[in-house]
């Protein structure tokens, strides 16, 4: 019998509803009813972020969060609920997802609350929106071949009828890239007004709605997007100001505990069931050599550059990811960037650590 989850921040897991040996664990949060398959475990922080994703997407769209969303979590749940080779899906019965797809599918679940599940809008815009809004924390920069070389561009994808077997995996980066371009070019207000337009939601006159809100046809937007010739896009907000780490003179010290039962720890993920402390960040105004001391009885520290000032004068290693194991000390070249700090432990174990950075 799993222990009931305690009150966490602005939400509460109301309890493990079916935790007997013969039944799957089930947790109810403010917005979700999560059933775990395949012996899956979810850290408190993952449940909190999943709940927050529903609120975040709803706020972006200017709507109230939908009623309780059923989530069936695990690879066998996806296989049973989605079929084929899908990595996840959102149906009338709920969301079927794994750690790799949950934030994408929750975008779909919120959108389905605005219409009939499975028939909201078009593949291009709905999958593109789910790609963009699933990037609420760090993801590696995604790269796309020059838009001018793509045969399956936005105009073609917008015309695909809803239903399985039409959108292929290679189309997701295109959809995400095009939606990122629409946001950057026209702003969130115009994009949300289009997405919430009944002509688009119902799918009956989405081209008319697109022209009304953006002032050009989808085919013209396809051409403009190709002309922009952007090859990279980023859809993340890695650094929460509430988790900024301050320097005291030339020194920064940060201590905490990685613990799956704490609201700031997410996971498990990967073959080793890694659990990860919610990211913190620090900023260097000038490139520096920095001594990093990671005092811990295990685990792994990662430092990842974000929002760098690249003058072209520094060696590439100043911008490389940095990795330390527990107990290691290294002198590291760091560029003038905001640096994301991630600390990993192992599910089922707590990891106390101290990170000390000293500018040399």
Overview of the molecule:
- It is built from ten helices and 19 strands.
- It has 360 residues and is of the alpha+beta class.
- It folds into two domains: 227 residues, Neutral Protease, domain 2 (Orthogonal Bundle), CATH 1.10.390; 119 residues, Sandwich (Jelly Rolls).
- Strands 11, 12, 13, 15, 16 and 18 form a six-stranded antiparallel beta sheet that branches.
- Strand 6 and strand 7 form a beta hairpin.
- Helix 6 crosses helix 7 and helix 7 packs antiparallel against helix 9.
- It starts with 6 loop residues before the first strand and ends with a strand.
SSE blueprint and pairings:
Elements: E1 7-8, E2 11-12, E3 26-28, E4 32-36, H1 44-61, E5 69-73, H2 75-82, E6 89-91, E7 94-97, H3 102-112, H4 123-133, E8 142-143, H5 154-158, H6 171-186, H7 188-195, H8 198-201, H9 206-214, H10 218-228, E9 232-233, E10 251-258, E11 265-269, E12 274-277, E13 280-283, E14 288-296, E15 300-306, E16 322-325, E17 329-334, E18 338-346, E19 351-359
Parallel strand pairs: 4-5, 5-7
Antiparallel strand pairs: 1-2, 3-4, 6-7, 8-9, 10-19, 11-12, 12-18, 13-18, 14-17, 14-19, 15-16, 15-18
Helix pairs in contact: 1-3, 3-4, 4-6, 6-7, 7-9
Organism: Nannocystis exedens
Protein name: Peptidase MA superfamily protein
Low confidence ranges: 1-21
How would you sum up the major sheet?
Answer: 6 strands, antiparallel
The helical percent reads: 25-40%
**Helical run tally:** 10
Q: How many separate structural domains?
A: 2
Intertermini distance: 52 Å
Query: Regarding CATH, which class of the largest domain?
Result: Mainly Alpha
